[in-house]
Description:
globular, binds adenosine monophosphate, 12% strand, three-stranded mixed beta sheet
Amino acid sequence: MSAGDSQPVDSSAPPQRQQQVSAKPSEPSPLKQTPPPSSSTSAAAGRRSGSLSSSGSGPASLPTRDRDAGHHADNVGVQPSTGIQVVQPSTFLGSYVRPRAIVTEGPMTPATATQTTPPRPLSLVDREQIEGLRAIRAFLKVRTSYDVLPLSFRLIVFDTALLVKKSLNILIQNGIVSAPLWDSRTSTFAGLLTTSDYLNVIQYYWQNPDELKRIDQFRLDSLREIEKAIGAPQIETVSIHPEKPLYEAMRKMLTSRARRIPLIDFDDETKRATVVSVVTQYRILKFVAVNVKETQMLKKPLKELRMGSYTDLQTANMDTPVMDVIHMLVKKNISSVPILDKDGTVINVFESVDVIALIKGGIYEDLDLTVGEALLKRSDDFAGIYTCSIWDRLDTIFDTLRKSRVHRLVVLDENGRLKGILSLSDILEYILLEGESEGG
Ligand code: AMP
């Protein structure tokens, strides 16, 4: 379902102070608590109803593993999160005027050349924002994916002959959500297994429930076949050499809408591609947050930067069948759906990675659950839900990225109701593209 009451950001409204959802990070907030399981046992018509697990999910537990990276070590100084974080409210109260060509100082584009009114002089905050962005881009151009990798890490690569159901168990046991694929018959890199592949398998099962026996025998090399069968777009895996600048890796992520890309080296001796690791949006942004002190110069609030999504928000409630949410994730190519109560207050977020726990062991009965029931299957190392307001500044968002395991922030209004979503893709896009089109 769509949140029809979510308003687009109103740039003319006067700035307001953020109301905290959680008074202090250490105090329990509504979002920190595991929502009570739905009493509804409603399941999709004609399908079996799944049983409700009593093992509660534990949002905001200490992140002991980094599911995002596919390995366990981390050299970027990640602080464990001890609770749901609320980004501190912004104190910036400037009026809304988006400067043109704020980053580059190249020749005037036709758009600026023909404008009749002189551009507004840049304020100190504008200039600092430009300098901060320049510093981040300069940093990304001289650092490579190798720099982002931990000094020591474990890389898990799946042979394409592995059964899909076994791959799920291995991901869960290792606390990871993706793995490069290797075709041992041809000794070649065969792509990246991600949650999108499992979403495809689920869609296939949903369309062909009678083929459960066959689905049980699916191996990872059947994934392309499944894509074709359900009419999913066939997307080539984008990869990058680990010695290429991070800036290039981020550009590739942006153009392909990939949230992670494999790092592929070429072995001169064997003349074969070698999988080195996987680089993710999360890891790159954390690396920037930890290492680029100029992120502190980004003093503009989300509202002014127009960062994030504020319209056509995909939402659900605890009683929504989890399959409806899975369809939303696929149809809109998004990685999460906020879960609202009847007043529109955000009480949880269903993430695409949550489907892994739902179909572990190749058992598909849990797809009959409601969202509330499905969320109880979530792993104990769930990082928690992070919230902010449209008045939060980018520097404080970077502070949160530096300190915590954040994959997105849910933008709330002063009453804890959903206003928008700020995903890592939105931050990445801003960092790379802001001002680019105007100035080259
Ligand atoms: P993500 O899936 O988090 O990488 O986000 C991809 C894009 O979709 C970003 O521009 C997000 O702001 C937007 N987005 C993420 N989740 C939702 C949602 N539930 N409804 C609408 N837009 C979303």
